[in-house]
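Render this sequence as a predicted structure.
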Amino acid sequence: MPKHPEELAREKIDSALAAAGWSVQRYRKFDPSVGPVALTDVPLVDGVCDYLLVVGRAAIGIVEAKKAGTTLAGVAEQSRFYGDNLPDFFVKGERPRFFYESTGVETFFRDVSDPDARSRRVFAFHRPETLAEWASQRETLRARLARTPGEHPLARAGLRECQVEAIESLERSLAEDRPRALIQMATGSGKTYTACAFVERLIRHGGARRVLFLVDRANLGRQAKGEFEQFVIPGTNRKFTELYNVQHLTSNHLDHVARVTIATIQRLYSMLRGEELPEDLDERSGFELGLDKTPPKDIAYNPALPIETFDFIVTDECHRSIYNVWRQVLEYFDAHLIGLTATPSKQTIGFFGGNLVTEYGHERAVADGVNVGYEVYRIKTEVTERGATVEKGLFVDRRDRKTRARRWEELDDDLTYDASALDRSVVVPSQIRTVLQAFKDALPELFPGRELVPKTLVFCKDDSHAEDVVQLAREVFGKGNDFAKKITYNTYDPETKRYAKSDTLIAEFRTSPTLRIAVTVDMIATGTDIRPLECLLFLRDVKSRIYFEQMKGRGTRVLTPTDLQAVSGSDARAKTHFVIVDAVGVCESDKTDSRPLEKKPTVALDKILIDVAFGKRDEDTLSSLAGRLARLDRAVDDERRREIEALAGGRKLSVLARDLLRAHDPDEIAAAATGKPGASPAETSPERFDAAQKALIDAACAPFDKPALREALVLAKKETEQTIDVVTIDEVVYRGFDPAAKEKAASLVRSFREYIEAHRAEIDALKILYSRPYGQRLTESMLKELEKKLRAKDAAFNEELLWSAFAATKPERVKGRTQVDRFADLVPLVRFALEREEVLAPFADSVRVRFEQWLGRKRTEGVVFSEDQRAWLELVRDHVATSLSIEPGDLDYAPFHQQGGRGRAHQLFGGELAKLLDELNEVLAA
């Protein structure tokens, strides 16, 4: 005979209670000696209770059973009624505190001692010892959380404004017993540090027994543990781990005395399922494993990890941890869920019940100086865009994807492939090499004056693609193995003869001046902190907006000029921005919510400032000005910063930038219109909204009415700017330039020509270069005067940028490239601009050519120099190549004095020395 639905429900409830440690007994079979008991069908003063939970002969809980499918919201009153009608053999006045309503499929729970107690869904029943412990406490966790904001104000010292906002908003949410809360903080703004701060407060003021900090990759767990170890508890001068145990879970053994447990979500999932997790899976994210698309395997109750194991679960990068397999982990535990992310999707916000307690996005972080902005540089190649065809009869390599073993094969048919097949089914070494060469050629334009390649992260499609790229990167840049390395899950260390730990490689990339390019797939695409990164090269497309935003976030982090120079050289003056080099069109689809603040990259700062003063205050203009000010804030020295703040009425550059962004932020406007923080635009009338916006715009723009402030900002920009900030999508096909880039270069060339034409009679160096042949010799001091005046006129008038501009406009007439700090190259630049030279070549190259010609003439005259004399003459040649001329006194300094100085020169050349120097001055600088 089929069982009644309520009988089936009872069977499931019996099993669930037993799994949680309750002995299920019939009322008349009560045996307290076996421990905590769940008595069934207990007669009450009025009615019969389905289950009465008894610990030590005290009734502490009620379970009301219903058949599957019953909606439980209205059943709570029934279970509470039973609690008020206990039989008289229980202590008079004693009432159960814990109430469950269950169908065996769905279970609700509430603790009536909570403030404004309400039912919440739980995965299973709590263990008896847990309920007994809760019953012994003077007040509940939720009562303590409700008191925290009012009784324990946050100590703000050492916290950024965005971190204060996040912690205080979270604590207000917890005080209201909101079960889930989402914190959005831009990459680099200190999410983990913020988590350390609020977790410490949850333990100290909320009485939290254990907090779970979830990550999706083991190296991020190690990074998080490092943050907890370094976190100093306010007011104590003691570190977090001096007071509380922190466990990074690397096995399936949970340390029950740890107050904070850090684990990957995949490890916790395997523990709940009673399975061992292969070590390598702990090191790999769910994205790379494809588990975001894997149908979930159901989780069952695991007595080793009861639902009350954690009071709070903080899930880092939560936009990746709420789907399919992982969602079950989060919903298994009876804990408050706190999500951290820089990139919330609609689904993420939905999972957290719309409770986005704080929003701190990329644009605001840039304005505050917490992040740096970015620019995009586009590279296209023929194969990348259109694919190719290999005709039948030709031989191709065939490579096994797993073993990478190769064999030759003659094609029986034409092999035609499109761009989507690249580096998956078809590998074209020439395509990879061409992209890398184009990237190398673009570096002087992207980072002028830099000797070392900026720290660059290359994103590849898979491990095999990364292997090809790292080998070709070393080839293209002409460097060794320590210049470019692969950082993936399959990185082999030839010295140890084993696969390298990712943390070791990441630390090396973070700190080594030698390792300039890291090639990866997913290992450091998200979460990993590498602050010196200045360039991201995309060799793979990314369909997910969220994932692309995370990848992009690797470059946003700020660091001090000193720290940047420690790994990237003294010519890396400050990290003011980073560059996305897009070789696959990843930026061309609208994936990311954060746009560059710089909406007007070609408009000069002084033009934007005067526009604002005259009343041009649209969103693009104010956003662009905010971006310029944020970048300037990271580059100016302290003296200039103080001057600007004084002219701005005491307002910092970051505050000026933030106020400009707030003036067009609908939430900020609504808050100003209503006088209520957190108000939405819908809460005010259009008239009040417009009036509030006008007031915010006027207040934000008022400082720029002062000419002195505008002039100081423009001057500061000229002083600090060593490069032109280029925001371009460049259509480059193996060292080609798109029309926009050519026009920009042509404009710089025109300006340069106009300047030297206008000042030819004022500047000594220009007088001489205009009047050849001439009697007066061009000297180093004259050229330095010219260089100084050029830089004062326009920061773009420097050797590197001018050389690149001529190369873009007349590539067929430009030979070689100028080198960093070779100010003597101003000579050929001026001559070429004046069309006095047919070819633009580095000054040192022309000096070498003229030197060899001079030696040839000497030989025809019968003058042959000895080997020692020739070595000295080459030193003279090289000195002229850098300083334009040489005087006898120069022979007393390096590099001549190491060879014996002026005395040795006289020994070698005798009385002919002075004549030779004059002759070389005339010939070599001609």
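Summary. The two ends are 112 Å apart (CA to CA). Confidence is low (pLDDT under 50) at residues 290-295, 494-499, 590-598, 720-738.
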